[in-house]
Amino acid sequence: MEFAIFDEQYRCRTKDYFWFQETRQAIQTIVDKGMAVDDIASLSDMDNFFSAVSKGRAKETAQGVIRRLKVANDEFFRFFIEQSIEQQKLLVMVLIMVEDRTAFEFMNEVFKEKLILGDLTLSDGNVIGFIHSIQAKDTKAAEWSDGSVKKLRTCLKGFLRESGLAVSEGRNLKIVRPILDQRFTDFLYHEDLDVITKIFAGER
Questions:
Q1: Nearest CA to 90 among 12, 201, 13?
Q2: Contact 72, 62 (CB under 8 A)
Q3: What is the mean pLDDT of residues 142-157?
Q4: What pLDDT is recorded for position 16?
Q5: CA 114 to CA 40: how far, in whole Å?
Q6: How confident is the model at residue 56, as a pLDDT?
Q7: Starting at the edge strand that comes first in sequence, how are the strands of the sheet with 166-169 ordered?
Q8: What does R_g of the chain's alpha carbons equal in angstroms?
Q9: Cα–Cα distance, 153 to 28 (Å, whole number)
Q10: DSSP letters along 109-162, please?
Q11: 54 compared with 185, residue with greater pLDDT
Q12: DSSP code of 45?
């Protein structure tokens, strides 16, 4: 897999969800039927593949899932379907980090540092502070509205909860150190994604 996240712009994707079941369903279909990633869009349009509540939601879901799957390769898809639910959720988080620079830097600069320092409490202020740091160094990000920043905060926290990397603790989140099996770390190594292994492991 190609990791070229620093060539990407910062995004404020306020309508993105974790989409675990949808991603899992799409990958299983791609592997079982030998389909291309773009074929999932046709299935979504014609057959409501993701069982969305409206055409608008179906389109948003398909676009988001396909955008992430396009950064993966056949080896990723085959590896994914062989893993436990817990490992599959981490692999969805891998896709998010490979595709979305904002999410990657959040994980690298906030989540990883929390693990390294042993400070496992993540507050809204931690997330908002991170977003403001992006805005301070990027002119386009500086234009994000306060409302968009708050929605982005909610999205980033949602990724952590749904991936199993955090649980709610009052108004804060408590970070959960993931258990990485050897096959998982070996796979990321062979895909040149050691940087993500270090994020999950809390290593510099």
A1: 201
A2: no
A3: 98
A4: 95
A5: 37
A6: 82
A7: 121-122, 172-175, 166-169
A8: 17
A9: 30
A10: IIIHHHHHHT--EE-HHHHHHHHHHHHHH-TTGGG--HHHHHHHHHHHHHHHHH
A11: 185
A12: H
How far from 13 is each of 76, 154, 156, CA to CA, in Å?
Answer: 24, 11, 10
pLDDT value at residue 53: 77
Kindly tell me the burial class for residue 105, based on how many C-beta atoms sit within 10 Å of its own C-beta (0-12, 13-18, 19 or more): middle
d(CA 196, CA 203): 10
The span from the CA of 80 to the CA of 174, in Å, is 26
Tell me if residue 178 falls in helix, strand or coil: coil
Between CA 134 and CA 176 the distance in angstroms is 25
What pLDDT digit, counting tens, does each position of 65-90 carry?
999 999 999 999 999 999 999 999 99
In this predicted structure, what is the pLDDT of residue 87?
A: 97
pTM of the complete model: 0.95
Q: Given phi > 0 = left and psi -120 to 50 = alpha, else beta, which region is 34?
A: left
The count of other CB atoms within 10 Å of the CB of residue 142 is: 11
- pLDDT at 43 > cutoff 90: no
| Model pLDDT, residue 44 | 72
Contact 148, 14 (CB under 8 A): yes
Cα–Cα dist 117/58, whole Å: 41
